[in-house]
Amino acid sequence: MGEMPKHSVSVAGIVVDSDDRVLVIRRRDNGRWEMPGGVLELGESFEDGVRREVAEETGMSVEVERLTGVYKNLSRGIVALVFRCKPGSSDLVAQTDEAREVRWMNRDEVTRSMTPAFAVRVHDAFDTRPHTRAHDGVQLVPTW
Questions:
Q1: If you average pLDDT over residues 2-12, what whole number do you get?
Q2: Where are the strands (E) in 29-61, listed by range?
Q3: How far apart are the C-alpha atoms of 33 and 116, rounded to whole Å?
Q4: How far is CA 134 from CA 32, 34, 98, 142, in A?
Q5: Beta partners for 70?
Q6: What pLDDT score does 52 carry?
Q7: pLDDT of 144
Q8: Domains (ranges, CATH) in the chain?
Q9: Is residue 32 a contact partner of residue 118, using CB atoms and an 8 Å limit?
Q10: Which of 78, 86, 90, 129 could make an S-S bridge to 63, C-beta 3.0–4.6 Å?
Q11: Own/partner long-range contacts of 51-58 (Cβ < 8 Å, ≥24 apart)
C-alpha cells in the first residue's frame, strides 16, 4: 500500500473591532487580501497559533473567542481552522515581513477585495454557528 496523502493544518484569525470591521493583510507573496494566519506549529495549541500568526502579520495581540469554520483547500491539501477574535493591543503596524499592507475593512470591502474562498470565512465569522467548506484555492466547491 502506498503512502497516504498528508494534509497541512493552518489557523487564521478574523479580528473584529467595535465597528464590525475586520483586520486584513495584503500578502507579500501573492498580493491577495486575506485574514492573518498560517501553518500551525507542532506542539502549539490552535489558539496559541492564531495569536502568534496575527501578531507576526499585523503586530496586534488578540483574544481568541471561538471557532467559526473549517475550510479545506482541495488543490493544496490544507485544512484551515478559522477563529473569531477581539483586538487586544493597538500596536497595529503598516506592514510586516509577510504583509505588504495591514488595514481594517468592512464586510462590503472584504467581498470586493478577497477571493470567494477567503471572503466567505469573514462572513462566516459573523454567523452564530461554525461552517465547513471546501475550495480550490479561489472558488468554493460543492461538498459531498
A1: 86
A2: 33-34, 37-39
A3: 11
A4: 19, 17, 25, 7
A5: 81, 132
A6: 97
A7: 58
A8: 8-141 (3.90.79.10)
A9: yes
A10: 86
A11: 51/13, 53/11, 53/12, 53/13, 54/13, 54/15, 54/23, 54/85, 56/96, 56/97, 56/98, 57/25, 57/96, 57/98, 57/99, 57/102, 58/15, 58/23, 58/25, 58/92, 58/93, 58/96, 58/99, 58/102
Pairwise CA distance, residues 2 & 36, whole Å: 35
User: What does pTM read for this prediction?
Assistant: 0.92
> How many whole angstroms separate alpha carbon 9 and alpha carbon 20?
27
The grid coordinates of residue 133 equal 467548506
Question: What is the identity of the amino acid at 68?
Answer: T
- Calculate mean pLDDT across residues 40-60: 96
For residue range 92-113, list pLDDT tens digits in order: 888 888 999 999 999 999 999 9
- Rounded to whole angstroms, the Cα distance separating 13 from 51 reads 8
H or E element, residue 119:
helix 116-124
Per the structure block, which three cell numbers stand in for 120? 466567505
How is residue 17 written as a grid cell? 473591532
In which residue are the cell numbers 471546501 written? 134
